[in-house]
Amino acid sequence: MAVRKIIHLDLDAFFCAVEEQSDPALRGVAFAVGGRPESRGVVASCSYAARSYGIRSAMPMAQAVRLYPKLRIIPGHYSAYRQASQLVMEIILDIATLVEQISIDEAFLDVSELTKPGEIIAQDLQSRINSELGLPCSLGVASNKLVAKIATDIGKAASPKSGNPPNAIQVVPPGKEADFLAPLPVEYMWGIGKKTAASLAELGIKTIGDLAQIPEIDLIKRFGKLGFELARHARGIDDRPIVTQHVIKSISQETTFPKDVHEREILLNTIHELSLQVARRLKNNHLEGTTVKLKLRWSDFTTLTRQTTLTQPTDIAEIITKSAQQLFENTWQPGRPVRLLGIGISGLFPYQYRLWEKADDAPELEKEQRLLTALDQLHQRFGYHIIRIGETVPRTKFPGQETSQKKKGGI
Question: Is 364 part of the annotated catalytic residue set?
């Protein structure tokens, strides 16, 4: 079988790089993109100057400020990030046809059909993104996705700690995958989190090379299906193809309150607004769902989820709201403070008039759809409080409230 040429691309400190383009004075400055520390904000991205103080992405902003009190905090400008990401993808697609974008700042390319060596293709791609867009990026080149991704990580880690983006390229020649992986800690591999790493450490396995020495059958006995994958990956074997289109498995929306909330009406109102946003995203993707999920996190960080299955698929906000509020009423302990609420829907189907609806219902369905479309347009223009269907609770504003969207992964 022909050896593949796979490139993994990661835009270095992407949000920060875009912010530096808008404000060149930020270059060389310790700053972070994210929410305010007093509102329980988190670090979405941080400059390499900030990283020298131990600040990292996904860290609570309050902790980041404790590490470096002079840290500059920049609110995110996500429309600018999306636009920059699209420009990067246009350059990538000019080079390769098999492209898997795995996040706003990461992608895999299969360039096996190109005659140039993978390293040269990576250099050309990096040069174009640097010169045409002014964005730094690091790339890993290997025969498969697993090794290419790890190569990127190693290339970035090996770059001099100068306070500047690494802009690295790391190449793993075909046939050298296992040698490259062998000295690395097992945590570098996909599928190995803290618990699995601890289980492996009990067996004396600390590096990927240690793992590669364990017979596959022993790993399967201990870890099941994961054991089979661990055995292959430890030897640098990964035959997963580039996936050019992802199937959306669920859509969800969640919000973290700036302060814990114990008022029932505020919580019910929040569920309604989250449901409206989920419904809008269902419509934008021409989908309906059958399973409504509620995510609730108490003030002590205890998190639970509840779900209910509908008799028919829906994209109607009021149905999602009613189901989610009922889940909440069955779960909430009156007076107990809530830190986070999330609403999701799964069991997705492409939208279509349902087979069990009679043909003479079509005018009513069309009228309902026009109404819901008009409501969506009003919500997008004036906010979710402007108009509601039926009975609901008064709107309460939450200044500084942080909201996040999720797709594909569920709640």
Answer: no
